[in-house]
Every structure is written in C-alpha cells, then in structure tokens.
Amino acid sequence: MFPLRDTVRSRTFPVVNYGLIAVNVLIFLFEAALGQQGFINLLDMLGVVPARISLTQPLNVFTLFTSMFLHGSWFHLISNMWTLYIFGDNVEDRMGSTRYLVFYLLAGIVSGLTHVVVTNTVYGVDSTLAQIPTVGASGAIAGVLGAYFILYPRARVITLVPLFILPWFVEIPAFFYLGFWFFSQLSSGLLSLGSYGVFGGIAWWAHIGGFIVGLLLVKLFARRPRAYEYWYPDEYWPW
Fold this sequence. Notes:
Elements: E1 2-6, H1 15-33, H2 35-46, H3 63-66, H4 74-95, H5 97-122, H6 138-151, E2 156-163, E3 166-173, H7 174-193, H8 204-221
Antiparallel strand pairs: 1-2, 2-3
C-alpha cells in the first residue's frame, strides 16, 4: 500500500515540516557529492552505532541527533520525506510550529535510543550488529505517525493498492492504516529478535519506539480544544 494523501487540510502553513524536508534533501545532496568512500565515512561518523553509545563516550550520544538527518539512498530519503509530507503538516497544525519541532526531534532521539537499547541488550555490544551505523528520519517520522493516530483517527488516507497491473485507489481510515503500519513494524521487530539482524536492513525497533513515544507525548504537545477549534469532521479530540 502506498499513501497518496490524507483528507485533512492544514489551516496554517507547515513551515517546520517543509523546513525539515528541505534540510533532509539538502543534506542528502551533500552526502551524494562526497563519493562512495566519503559517503560511507560520513554515515559511520554521524550515524548511530549502538556499541558506541555509552556514558563513557558522551560525545557519541550526539549521533542520536545527527543520524535522523542522514539517509542511505534516494529511495530511503524519498519514502521518508513523502510520509512526512503527508502526515506532518496536520500534526504541526495541531501543535504549533515550535512545539512540533521539539516533538519531532525528541521522537527521533528516543527512537534511536530504543534501537540502541534493544540491540545492545539482545545481541550485546560486541556483536556485529552493534557495530553497524543506523541512519534515517523514520524514527522521528514514526513519532509523527503516532501523534496523527491520536489526533486524527477518523481521517482517511487515500492509498494506492496495486491490483495485478491495475491501480486501485482506496480511502482507509487513519486509525486502521496507521494501526496496521504499527502492527507490521512490531511483527517485523519481533521476528528480527530471532534472526540476529535488523531483518531486511531496517531498524524496526526505532520505528516502534518512535511511534510509542508519539502516542505518549502527543497530549503534552498538542494544543487544547479551547486554543484550537476544529473545522473538519475528520478531526477528533479523544480527551
């Protein structure tokens, strides 16, 4: 399933969301200009390497921040930025730009830390997996999806479903679309625990951690009904 757009329009210009997309694209263009070896060296230096994250190496904790602005390929970048484009503007609209930026960065850091804890606990800091750098904005974006899940459960996600050679466009309630997405991440994460690997080259537990922190923190960052009057029937306040 490939999401095309949602049905909730933003009332404000999503300056932070567009800014995050622009920064990620510009950084990837810089990565691509480094050449293959320079690209590898940059990911190794600024990506999250679980074995290096410890109290005895405090400077490496900074990679929990830098890693969320790096991507390993054009497909990695485009898939992440497209998801952020679809869902991030509405979450920023509900939180406000400053709160949204803090929320996004916090979700990204916690998601990276989740990956570190699971990797070092399950496989050990001396394992091969703990030496592999992890990069990408998907953990932070998972936090945005968790917030969207709470804020807009009745919104619909217009989704492209390939049916043999014919495209099939379906409106799926956000509650089910994002619920299925999280279930798929959790299932893959659990499978990865028994396969000694990131299972398909994806840090599933970063996604799981990001989504959960989005669920838990959205009430702290979203504006209350008295400060935000909803306009569309797709918007719903569960508290």
